[in-house]
């Protein structure tokens, strides 16, 4: 295995450089140095606010902070200067070379054919300075392969470099309309349909509290906050609690809409040429992800519970070279929450063949998914009852028996409501289960909190895993996992019939399992 | 898809791991879980005997049920159960391995996707003359780990996978 970051030029490079003169080494943009100082904004700002709040008296703690900021500034600037001065890069005919390091000079040379994705990201500070960060993802998402990142280049330079990195022979122009989707602000109505609407408010409140706390302001000690709380407590609770809930939901919805706009401003998904798919988006922080078609292993249609109830869905790419799990989550998004029909269309456009949609019963994109055994429904019910209904009920009943009969009533109310919810969710989860083959794609669907329909290229499956526990063995079920060198790496098909799983895996990828199969006669 | 009347079943891999693996798993259990649990029970029993003899009537059974029995049970059951499950096979086109005990896992990876074969011998494994062979593919969810092979088997296996993987055409990506 050749590793891309080995010292010395890549084995193929000398032959190329012999015929053509090696291109010049290029530098990063000098404005990068200013970007490095951007982090100082937060501490200096909070220091200034503290000074304002305390009327100009700066405590000794603040002086220490200021000194620390100054010292860090010196160190960061020095490191930034060294990094800027000692980093350069070039694109030869076959490789992308980056040199860096002060004492230990390191040359990373990646063959161009191994570069799968190019990601340009610019934070508001970067954009203010007209620069952007370029990251080139290589094949193999394991540690060591990693990615090359250049911080930062001018926007024009970065665009040119991206074209160079992804340019290879035979980039034919696309004949059909290359643009798959653009933002439509009517989709904004889907923004509040995420679970983060309520959670986000608490996260925001938490960070505001922390910021105030760091400035030396204790919100609980402020007069108007205390008054508000006592009034809340003495007021009519049956009115104030729903009102507070409504306020939180309204606030969260506004936040969700703002986030949607920030993330998806001037969103555009298009085939920039026949072989590369490009997503551009962002208002303050702009992001542009380029995915090579050969690395695109499939498409995932996600329908989180609330979004599904509102008839919406999002689309993700299952592609290699998008970085680790965290980065993959950010970069693989192809479509924001949008109408389901639109999502199916975009998924099909990404695959360049109709998306196998299990909701359709006929037509070009219809996919027949096989249901899973009934016993899978029982498992989902039991799981919900044991893990959601039982602990809460026992806890409330125990506390009720010990302290107050009010909690006993709460216990049976909780038991009744949660049982109904669990049964509904279990039925939904069971009905969402399905698997099948649609032409070149393996299609699976599962999940209730997020119903995920996956269309995966059959030849992309790198390994099959069958997992069982004593419970599933008794029920005659097995969970099949398809390993892929892309996206989440492993895609589960939960609770198949034990008798069907090997046959299904063998049908998806002929030849791999056959020698281990026993045919009962 | 089950087109035939009787769907094909996945048979277990042909070769069992080395019988010494049972001792290795037993030692491992003793060092990581059973040993500390038994030791805790012993210390608590002794302390109670020395300082609070009155607590023994209820503490003794409690320790027995919470610490001693699970520790002994794990020690007695896990290695045998594992040995019954763990198996491996190198086919013409794929590697096949079974592992686990309570949760069991069978994994098949085509040789055309094999990237590296690692043989690891831990300090305890070395005492029993065992080794673990890990076959990696491009996907982290596709790595096959065969634990508890005899050293000779491990060497032979990794050599043969290396040979076969070269012959089978395919892309490792």
From TrEMBL, chain A:
It comes from Streptomyces albospinus. Keywords: Membrane, Transmembrane, Transmembrane helix. InterPro entries: UCP026631, YdbS-like_PH. This is YdbS-like PH domain-containing protein. The chain crosses the membrane at residues 33-55, 61-84, 190-212, 232-261, 384-403, 409-426. Pfam families: bPH_2. Residues 84-164, 430-501 form the YdbS-like PH domain. PANTHER family: UPF0699 TRANSMEMBRANE PROTEIN YDBS (PTHR34473), UPF0699 TRANSMEMBRANE PROTEIN YDBT (PTHR34473:SF2). The keyword Iron-sulfur does not apply.
TrEMBL record, chain B:
It comes from the Bacteria. Keywords: Membrane, Transmembrane, Transmembrane helix. Residues 86-160 form the YdbS-like PH domain. InterPro entries: YdbS-like_PH. Coiled coil: none annotated. Pfam families: bPH_2. The chain crosses the membrane at residues 29-52, 58-77. Signal peptide: none annotated. This is Membrane protein. It comes from Streptomyces albospinus. The lineage of its organism: Bacteria, Bacillati, Actinomycetota, Actinomycetes, Kitasatosporales.
